[in-house]
Amino acid sequence: MNPIVGALPANAARIAAMARQAQAAGAELAIFPELTICGYPPRDLAEKPDFVAHGQDWLRWASAEVPGITLICGCLTPADSRTGKSVHNSAQVLADGEVLFTQKKMLLPTYDVFDDSRNFAPAESQQTWNWRGHRLAITICEDAWNDKKFWPRRHARLLYNRDPVAEQMDEGAALLINLSASPYTTGKMQVRREMLAALAAEYRVPVLFVNQVGGNDELVFDGSSQALAPDGEVIARAASFREDLLLVDLPGGGRREPEPAEEERALLEALVLGTRDYVAKCGFRRVVIGLSGGVDSALTAVIAARALGPEQVLGLALPTRFTSQASLRDAAQLAANLGIELRTVPIEPMFAAALASLPPHWAGLPECDPGAITEQNLQSRLRGLTLMAFANRTGALVLSTGNKSELATGYCTLYGDMAGGLAVISDLLKTQVYRLCHYLNREQEVIPRTILEKAPSAELRFDQTDQDDLPPYEAVDAVIRGYVENYKTGEQIAAETGLDATLVRGLIRRIDRSEYKRQQAAPGLKVSGKAFGMGRRFPIAQQYEDVPASSAASTAAEAISTENRVR
After folding, report:
1. Mean of the per-residue pLDDT values for the chain?
2. Which of 267, 399, 410, 515 is the most buried (most CB within 10 A)?
């Protein structure tokens, strides 16, 4: 199910409708994902006592609407005040409007995007639930992600000192149910399947994994619910990236939807779903995109057209004296390929006016403007102004088009190309952008070939390319993977990639110094293991550098120099 965070009546109505469909198809037990009634993550909405109480009321209403079928559904329940928290993340079993059993989540993750311990009190114990002579183990998301036999084989992972699955299996559980809100990231679907298979095989019981689907803020949930036999074989699989009702007979099986065969397909579906849900759940219907004739805006436009329909996407070409005719032709061809509207709105008059009016007021001020950055950023900010004007006029949402490589290195303009309500591809490295574009073009030319073949350029001055200011993107992306996504040192990255150590240190310095920009950026859709945004929290005003002790003398001298400059 695809819930909307906070939309209790709408979510309850959807629970009742899907339970009714399940009952009509012969189901006796209908299982919904983690926190379905309120949506995940509710964040600090969970701190509101009335929100918790209303969620309970609406869940009982949904159960009463479909008498004769038992529901297991994720919800919030009040916590004992002695825990220091007001609420539990729970799963409740209901029938005919009555709560029969409540299981509380025990393991509360605090890594990456998860902040469960901020809002929830942990369960002190776990019990099985007896249903028609069978003991069922009901777990909630992280409670099943602590198999001490599986994870050490994969990688070093923080293990909790409790194992809810093992504790319930010790009570003789014959079936393991897991209600989840497990977000999508590249590669995670396979790891998740292997983990579930390991649990089934270890305890020799069937496993039912029921996962949320849809986009909520920066997170995209892929669904991919599945049932596994006691030997770990997948015997039934629901659809990925859309709502689905999967019927499973135990023992036995059910329908098996194929998983996305290529990672590029899954990645594209995640971005389309995340864009569609973000726009709709925020109350918008249409979007505005600046089409530069470059690869990033092209990919963003493709995703938007697929998510919302071409008729809801307005592209704006915003040329100045530096914009090439080739870029304008590429933008027009892209718009024609996608069937979206394109309007050309020259910002040259505004740019010329700014160049005429501002310099006289700068007289006598100190100058620090290498490469005429002021003039370049003026163009970007005038584009942001124009995009927002069209958005206000039409009631649309602006989609910003920057990628992760640009955000990492600060190769972006505050209040310019960073302006917008959603940064669709901000978690895609530049090299991933190209790979995804080539994937889109595998059968027919969706993105004009000329866009993919030309050197990337912001076109803010004549004959400009990105590589005038940045190393090749292959090098930039290798450093981002190492430093941002895996917390490796500059020395480790240089040794592993063969890149020049000075180049690596320079890129790391750019990444650190650009934090102030990223924390003012539009929210972006998370598709990697470590994205900029809610799962990465670094101070803005900080000066840490991973300099080895062998360089201590020179580092100390530079620090003294920096301190004097600050003063």
Report:
1. 92
2. 399
